[in-house]
Amino acid sequence: MAPPGARSATTPTLSQLKWVLLLTLLALLWRTITTRSPFFLIPPVPSLKPPHTCRVYHQPLLSCASFTALPSSPLLLLSCGELWVFDPTAPETPPRLVVFTSLDATRDFRLGDVVAVSAAGAGEYRVFAVNHAEGGGRVEVLDLDLDLSSAEARHVATIRHPAIHSPHGIAALNASAFFYTNDFAFAGSGSGSGRAGVVAEALTAAPGGSLGLAVLTPEGAEVTTVARLAAAKGVAVDTRGNKVYAVSAVKGVYAFSYDPANPALTMSKPEFLRTAVLGENLVFSEESGELFLSGGTSLRGLLGGEEEKVAVEQAGRESITARLVKDGKPRDFANAGLRREEWRWESVFADDGSFYGDVSTGAVLKAGGAFVATASRQRGVLVCRDVPIRHDDEKLQEEQTLGRDEL
């Protein structure tokens, strides 16, 4: 018998359940909105105004998706369908084509992101390259050997695994392990339903992408998924600070800490760095200790009117490269549309598409060095002898971001 004054148990009514469901959906919707990139609040990107020291070199090179610095060397390895060795300190010098000593390595070989680490000998590097092959996404393992006159790569292994189904970004932990990202859960399917699934993932910011770690073994690789992300794109590793950065194109950058003794099982809850940029690729400079994010700044080129679409096709899409600022919260174009407490970025390059545009990978690889960028939909390699930080446009940036720093 219930004590006097006790409340009797009641079954929730259908109306009450509907209210609970509605409030839950509203809470989830609010959380999604407040963590997404505010691309509709970003003002148009200004054009690259002279004077500047930027120039596009070697325009026969088409669709250079990314590049990686060769450790202990001024050289870069460009991924432009094929691999090219490029010297940004002497950009006029023609890049060298990497020749594969294994003919099998060139079959069904469609290079995407690429990363290199030092190998045993001088001038030798272990290279991991994303291969968007017709037979399915995979990662190629190569050994690159440079001498004074040539560049040769020996194909070591092809890593195929169900967990590596739509690879986009890749970053080396060491010569026998790498982090990778899958962008969408439905990206591996070329069917109409697969494409519809990708669109649904992007619109809803559903975590269909992933961040994973692969460790090479004699049989292939041991692969572990360490995080689920929405529209996962670039990834970068700070091996000195034991951090992994992964970008969600529709949200921002996630920073994970790990124990180098067991990275896959010690990944921390990530720090979230919201971005105004619809991120494509990340570059971490070991020399300067800086993280660079490149990507588009709006959907105007895709959702605008016909005149705007034609202009985008004739030139390039708006793009920006920004670096993560460790101290201070700058009022900068790269923070447009973000809340003040989220101001963590500083632009180093911005283009409305009229000069180069559509930068997919960009970085200043050493303090006082040149700014280098590549674009997956453009020709050539962009090199700026001086970092084009837009100090002359600070007043314009303040006017553009004023009133847009909070949602």
TrEMBL record:
Superkingdom classification of source: Eukaryota
SUPFAM superfamilies per UniProt: Calcium-dependent phosphotriesterase
Protein's name in the database: SMP-30/Gluconolactonase/LRE-like region domain-containing protein
Organism: Sphaerosporella brunnea
